[in-house]
Amino acid sequence: GFFWWPVTLDNSALDDSPQKNSPQRLSNLKLPPIDVIVPARNESESLPLSLPRLLNQDYPARIRVFIVDDHSDDDTAQICRNIFAKKDWKAEMHIIQPEDLPQQWSGKVWAMHSGWKASREMEDPADWILFMDADIALSSSSLQQLTQHTLSGGYRLGSWMVRLRIDSFWDRLLIPAFVYFFAKLYPFRWASDTKRQLAAAAGGCILLESSALEKAGGLESIRSEIIDDCSLADRIKNHVHPDQRQKIWLGMVNDVWSVRPYGSLSPTWKMVSRTAFTQLKYSYILLTFTLLGMALVYLAPPALTIGSFLTAMIQPEGWTWLTATLFVLGSGAWSIMAWTYLPTLAFYGVSWGFSVLLPFSALLYNLMTLDSGWKTFIKKGGSWKGRTYSPPS
Predict the structure, then answer these.
(1) Rounded-to-integer distance, Cα 347 and Cα 343, Å
(2) How far is it, in rounded angstroms, from Cα 371 to Cα 57?
(3) What angle do CA 182, 41, 267 make, to 5 degrees?
(4) For 9-52, what is each residue's pLDDT tens digit?
């Protein structure tokens, strides 16, 4: 699926007709009202940076923002009220206090459900819903671009992989690699292909048709899912109509970004270990094969390259047919690996030199995946914002 080549608005082939998404056609689109649902648990640091941009979108139709204060321990709700009181914003804002988290529901999905339910109970509920994380900052035209792109392409769901924040060496080492590996698991072009069952979305920014969500079983259908974004995309693509896959779209975008800082190894480690074993369906057999496969693909090439070189330097006869062959195979595979990583690094503005370090990034992600399985084994499960999620019994 050309997973290594980022899909963006510019290179997204929506239709064979060159007039399909011409500027004139896009300008003639009547954009619908949008209800924006923002699950927020302990987001007092992110919302002052992201919420004003959401409330001030250049969008020609009504926007209602529902902040779902998911039992925060900080002053998330009051910060939102203070921000909204500062000026006359272009969007409405409502703060929702959900009921206690029921059994069999993951926290974020319950917050999403509570916000969606609140929007349905409002007068004139919007036909399109935007689920957006509290740390996502939009440019002034982002919502209009996403809506135009989704409607003009005939998609029931459109999602953007936003630009994650990169401030440190650890960010440069791990964040582009995270997107690279995600695209390898879920090739964006395959997710948008109605001939394929694979579906994916990026949870930070998902626009979808409300009627499609209802026909797919609502958020109740994914109530226990930890990887809620891809599960939601699967419901929309494969379960709206029993005999027909629906069109969805997933791509990357430059002018929408996360304000959440990472900075060190620990935050990324926690983020990945929370869901890695879930991705493997809590199977220790899949975990074993995944670790072996990652080692074969990403760790064996540098091991062969460095090992054959050192052997040739140490042994009296120098280079032999065996060491030369191993060196060529190892360095060739390492070079191809690094080459496929370059477009993702370029998208994030990270030096090409980090492409050579992709095996080291892969080693760390291997250890995060192993840690995810180990925590489940010792009954701790994945932990996120004070909640622990264990595999279903």
Answers:
(1) 6
(2) 41
(3) 45
(4) 876 644 444 445 555 455 668 999 999 999 999 999 999 999 99
